[in-house]
């Protein structure tokens, strides 16, 4: 039977429209974002949110696992189970805070924690997200949908980004060309031409380099408001060398991650800049993000009249100012303006992807990922 001939897995759940839970942990590995949402054709209604901290020891172990090392299978297996437990506990705390019974929730959509993402190129790519969905379903008592990326990669796609399909479903508007910019660890854009998704792809690093450089210099995990970067000066030659990386010249579907853009990558680029002050490097990294996002918007054939930003980078006032400077008169605003707070867009997106899976509807977009066709994404784990 073809995918297009499939019927909804749980038709009674889809038809009565109960809430869904979306779980997302990003490249910062600082917390699990949990969102309780209602999804239907009219849009997304955010009912409740909860940010569940990830313990320091687990955070360090997850970051270590994202780089090649010894005894990886043993470490991954242990973390897979432990993170599944944490995802389950986070869900129960969300529901307890909201006063909602688990029996009333349709499903959990869990992205999982990416520990390795290798886009296809000369060699076949692969992607690994952990956080055992069996454990999540067992602890929560809720149908859990997970492993969203690998089906797209199986049919020739990048497996990322997946957010643009969600952005098109709920941020598009007739006769308005918009860009949705996600400033997470990695930046990605969705280009909406009226009610349709024209394109979407990763544009390069966002918070990941800014956060790691800030932490390396003993200043804490994040540059609050971009204050440290704002006090530095952009180093033009360094910026040129950073932007000369081959990734930024690629066109069409593209994805990346911390496997590529990390401090080792930056250290290599910094060779020959031994006199560069750390604060000036931070300013240059912020400029790199703003400039590469703006260049991707400029190089597209969608003349976006509105730009809306989500993800943690929306709180970096310096970065937002630099982005506005690069895009000129095109207004830049938070997705709050469109009715969905920027910190919860990704978690809400995976709740939507869970609904798509139960309804036997596609979750990817070939023009974004490069897949051979639209596919139903995710494995389903019944309670």
Note the overall shape: globular
Instruction: Note the quaternary state here.
Output: single chain
Helix % is 25-40%
Largest sheet: 6 strands, mixed
Q: Say how many strands there are.
A: 13
Order of helices and strands: HEEEHHEEEHEHHEEEHHHHHEHEHHE
- Helix vs. strand class: alpha/beta
In whole angstroms, the N-to-C terminal distance is 26 Å
Which regions are unreliable across 5 or more consecutive residues at pLDDT < 50? none
Gyration radius, in Å: 20 Å
Strand order of the largest sheet: 3-2-1-4-7-13
Amount of beta strand: 15-25%
What is the overall pLDDT average? 94
Number of discrete helical segments: 14
Topology:
Layout: H1 11-16, E1 20-24, E2 31-40, E3 43-53, H2 56-65, H3 72-98, E4 107-110, E5 113-118, E6 126-130, H4 133-140, E7 144-146, H5 150-154, H6 163-171, E8 177-183, E9 186-193, E10 196-205, H7 207-216, H8 227-230, H9 236-243, H10 263-270, H11 278-299, E11 306-310, H12 317-327, E12 332-334, H13 345-358, H14 366-369, E13 379-381
Helix pairs in contact: 2-3, 3-4, 7-11, 9-11, 11-12
Description:
The protein is of the alpha/beta class and 383 residues long. The protein is built from 14 helices and 13 strands. It has helices spanning 11-16, 56-65, 72-98, 133-140, 150-154, 163-171, 207-216, 227-230, 236-243, 263-270, 278-299, 317-327, 345-358, 366-369; strands at residues 20-24, 31-40, 43-53, 107-110, 113-118, 126-130, 144-146, 177-183, 186-193, 196-205, 306-310, 332-334, 379-381. A six-stranded mixed sheet has the order 3-2-1-4-7-13. A five-stranded mixed sheet has the order 10-9-8-11-12, with helices on both faces. Strands 5-6 form a two-stranded antiparallel sheet. The protein is globular. The two termini are 26 Å apart.
